[in-house]
Specification:
29% helix, 41% strand, alpha+beta, eight-stranded antiparallel beta barrel, 348 residues, two-stranded antiparallel sheet
Length: 348
């Protein structure tokens, strides 16, 4: 119902904006307004041509184009802009002739909206002027998501003897990353950096749960028959990776891009950040009813998080691993460090 109400409000707002623009244009005759629109279209296309020529000249100065190729690109740009002017003016002139032929002096709101698009600029309060395409974009952004298995490395103990359930202990990570090409003329090395939220979960075995004893935190057997025992740390980290791998260069008339969507890649690096919170969930039956406990506290966990991470993959999908160099708990007699292995997606 809320969504429907929102849509109705949005439609009403759009209609009101159309009405406002229509009222604004009625201050002048429609023919006069169309005549003025012709001059705006011509000036705008000429200005865009000037910008294109400047970009081509800059490429010549940077030794990216030779003189002959540059002149050819300028000629093509001039022809394209001339055709734009010819086609747009034809639309405007046809509307002028239609009004004069029928002795009318009013354009429909749809006609006025169409002319505004031809002119570029403000429509419904938004700027619809096409943005210039950058010739070279060295930095792009990705949405990062990963999940998989989580456990700990305990000093002096094999991971086979882990006190946590292998399949039940899991992690998830979601964040935003930027990828910057290191070298101007090559894309084989990139630096990837950003921020991520990590959620590391541990499920103890043998009916145990974590107990904060003040000076340290230990795993202890519960007096209750636990249906669920889960411990989780939520972290905010800043990961930095050096990413290696081939890419395909796509070259167009006025820009070029490197594409890694179908390429092998390797990323190595690390992360550092803070612990946002620690919680434990317990579920059991006390003999009369089911009880769910949610415990939040420090549990003597380290507040500063840092570690190593890396990934190997193809395109958007990778096999991902991370390892905390900090111990989970401060001053515990047993040193435990979080380790994770899973699948990672990087969507641009």
């Amino acid at each position: 119902m809320k969504t429907f109400t929102y849509c109705i409000a949005l439609v009403m707002w759009a209609l009101s904006m159309v009405h406002c623009y229509a009222q604004e244009e009625n201050n002048n005759s429609s023919v006069e307004w169309l005549e003025n629109s012709r001059e705006v279209v011509i000036a705008k296309e000429k200005n865009e041509l000037r910008k294109e020529v400047e970009r081509i000249n800059n490429r010549v100065d940077n030794n990216e184009l030779d003189f002959t190729t540059a002149e050819q690109l300028k000629k093509e740009a001039a022809e394209r802009r001339a055709l734009n002017i010819e086609n747009k003016l034809a639309i405007i002139d046809n509307k002028i002739e239609l009004l004069k032929r029928n002795g009318e002096d009013n354009l429909t709101d749809t006609d006025k909206l169409e002319i505004r698009f031809l002119k570029g600029g403000d429509v419904f309060g938004f700027d619809y002027t096409p943005r210039e395409r950058k010739y070279d974009v060295r930095t792009t952004s990705d949405l990062v998501f990963s999940f998989g298995l989580n456990n700990t490395i305990i000093k002096g103990q094999s991971i086979d003897d882990s006190p946590y359930k292998v399949g039940g202990s899991r992690y998830a990570e979601i964040g935003l990353a930027w990828k910057t090409r290191v070298f101007k003329e090559s894309n084989w090395l990139r630096v990837k950096y950003g921020f991520s939220f990590q959620f590391n979960g541990l499920k103890p075995t043998d009916n145990r749960f974590f107990v904060d004893n003040g000076a340290d935190t230990s795993l202890e057997v519960s007096e209750q028959d636990l249906d669920k025992s889960k411990f989780r740390m939520d972290n905010l980290v800043i990961p930095v990776h050096f990413e290696f791998g081939p890419s395909k260069k796509i070259t167009k008339e006025d820009y070029f891009r490197y594409n890694t969507n179908s390429s092998f890649k390797v990323g190595v690096g690390g992360y550092a950040g803070i612990n946002l919170g620690t919680r434990q969930k317990l579920k059991f039956n006390d003999g009369s009813e089911d009880v769910k406990q949610k415990q939040r506290g420090n549990f003597n966990t380290n507040n500063f998080i840092y570690g190593l991470s890396g990934y190997v993959g193809w395109g958007d999908v990778s096999l991902y691993a991370k390892y905390d160099l900090n111990t989970i708990f401060k001053d515990n007699p047993v040193e435990e460090r979080n380790v994770s292995l899973g699948v990672r997606w990087d969507w641009d």
